[in-house]
Amino acid sequence: MNRILRATASLGASSLVTIALSTLRYKFIALDLGANGLGLLGLLSTALSTLLVLFGLGLGNAGIRFIAVSKDEDEDVARARRHGLLWGSAALSLLGALAVAGAAPLIGPHLLPGTSSTQLTLWLAVTLGVSILAAGVLALLNGLERLSLVARANALGALLGTAVFLGLLWALPGQALAAAFVAPPLFTLLVALVYAAPYVRGRSAPREAWIALVPMIRLGVPFALSLLAGTAAQYASRLLVERRLGLEEVGHMQAAWTVANVYLGFVLGAMGSEYFPRLSRAAAQVTQLNVMVRQQIRLVLLLGGPVLLLLIAFAPLIIGVLYAPSFASAVTVLRWQAVGDLAKLVSWAVAFVLLARENRRAYLVVELLWSAVFLGALAVLVAPFGLQAVGLAYLLAYLAYMIATLVACRAETGFALDARATTFVVGAAACAVLNWWLAGLGLVGQLAGALVAVGLLVAGLSLFGWWGGVRQVVARGRIPGARVPASKE
User: Fold this and answer.
1) CA pair distance 341, 347, nearest whole angstrom
2) DSSP letter string over 262-283?
3) Own/partner pairs for 195-202, CB < 8 Å, 24+ apart?
4) Residues 6+ apart with CB under 8 A from 42
């Protein structure tokens, strides 16, 4: 448990720095370019996510696992895997950048609105190439369990990228939007390459590197397909909002989406970096596996739950401070998304069981289910509810996703969600519904809703025994009830 907490603390601190700098960039874009500029950045970011999955082939995700297990193998094999991961990432990086750049005049007007769509698509191509290679280098460090170096690379890259963005915003305002998009991943790549250099010394025959690369791609494809479905759904949802409600509403959607999702990055990032390899090693030991999942759910709710409840309570203040008063329509969206993220925390932890047990078909099905429910609900609800439909569709999608992952994992390992976690999630959902109703009463209603959320937070801390748990985490690095029994195998 000490190792889990150290990894979470290190990557969490890095993510908090990255989040703060990302928020700063979004704040300046919102003030300088307004909702339209923020909407363009949102479309660029979502298009990048989709293209990263399409051209990255999940190599970064698969690479972590193969690099981790190679520590116990022959040094020549381990070196071939490291070189195969980096050479494969470089090849995919070049392929993706050239493909998008070459097709920029054709796909630009369809990807992005406005007369500058071709130029922005070229910047998208550069960012795509940089991001694919950066993912491979960070996967190498992650697989080698150099999590502190991963954290530093992400934090320093965000810091240097933000500095360049602020400089261009002052000197060349017309290039500030591109800088906000390109600079952070570029500097993250440069810093990561410096950190990775000592671990890739020596030579490997091209045939050995290729042999090591092929299994990574085979494992990465299921990751890529599931992520492609999710990112494509996000991009399609932004296009749907832009065409039904206008580009300004895409900016408001992006504001709520950023607050609801980016602020959980430190939890999910730490989970993906440390949790999945550990879970994979215990995949054959079902009893231990289920205890580890329950332990991880408790930890992730401990770290993410209070933040989400505070988002529900103080959404108007947060949106106003981080963006501008004109973004008020994002408040209700943010509240619904915060409730959806409570289900996301639970289901994301459970879904890793399907990958650890190599049930790739079930994993892909539940991921496709999220995309189908989100887009379907948004298409139906956007006419009667307007922008609020984004939050409602998000919530419905993650409720369906949580139910599907729990059913699939129960069939796989017999896992069941404990009653306390269920009570906490249902209570938070009730709080959000109450806050939505109280918000219509004006300032007094919002203050009353904030008090309800704070009261639910206190009740949740008591329900999980977190008051004593916090002291034990600090003193012993241990979460109550997290003892893993010895394997019976």
Assistant:
1) 9
2) HTTHHHHHHIIIIIHHHHHHTT
3) 195/141, 195/146, 195/149, 195/152, 195/153, 196/86, 196/137, 196/140, 196/141, 196/149, 199/82, 199/140, 199/141, 199/144, 199/146, 200/79, 200/82, 200/83, 200/86, 200/140, 202/79
4) 238, 250, 251, 253, 254, 257
Q: How far is Cα 81 from Cα 73, in angstroms, rounded to an integer?
A: 11
Phi and psi of 417, rounded to 5°?
Answer: -70, 135
Two structure tokens written together for 219? 């494992």
Is the Cβ–Cβ distance between 310 and 263 less than 8 Å? Answer: no
Could you count the other beta carbons within 10 Å of the beta carbon of residue 255? 27
The token pair that represents 231 in the structure block? 């990112």
Provide, for the chain, the percentages of residues in helix, strand and coil under a 3-state DSSP scheme, each rounded to the nearest 5: 90, 0, 10
Instruction: Read off the pTM.
Output: 0.72
Tell how many helices (H) and how many strands (E) occur in the chain: 18, 0
Read off the pLDDT of residues 334-375 as tens digits, 9 standing for 90 and up.
888 888 888 888 888 898 888 777 787 888 899 899 999 999
Q: What is the dihedral of CA 367, 373, 375, 380, to 10 degrees?
A: 180
pLDDT for 432-441, tens place per residue?
Answer: 777 767 767 7
Give residues with Cβ within 8 angstroms of 375, minimum separation 6: 233, 236, 237, 240, 393
- What are the angstrom distances between the C-alpha of 66 and each of 81, 216, 280, 285? 7, 7, 11, 20
Q: Are 112 and 247 in contact (CB under 8 A)?
A: no
Assess contact for 436 and 391: CB atoms under 8 A.
no
Q: What does the block give as tokens for 306? A: 């209070």
Burial of 114 (0-12, 13-18, 19+ CB in 10 A): middle
Contact between residue 232 and residue 306 where contact means Cβ atoms under 8 Å apart:
no
Cα distance between residue 468 and residue 483, in whole Å: 16
Instruction: Please state, in angstroms and rounded to a whole number, the distance separating the CA atoms of residues 85 and 488.
Output: 36
- Give the Cα separation of 267 and 344 in Å (integer): 12
> Over the Cα atoms of the chain, what is R_g?
22
Between CA 467 and CA 478 the distance in angstroms is: 13
Domain boundaries defined on the chain: 16-218, 282-489
Count CA atoms closer than 13 A to 291's CA, side-chain side.
Answer: 15
Mean pLDDT of the chain: 78
Report the Cα–Cα distance between both ends of the chain, in Å, rounded: 22
Distance CA(266)–CA(253), nearest Å, equals: 22
Note whether 406 and 417 are within 8 A (CB). yes
Q: Which residue's entry shows tokens 């909407």? A: 39
Rounded to whole angstroms, the Cα distance separating 204 from 84 reads: 9
- Find the length of the chain: 489
With b for 16 or more beta-carbon neighbours within 10 A and e for fewer, the 456-479 pattern comes to bbeebbeebebeebeeebeeeeeb
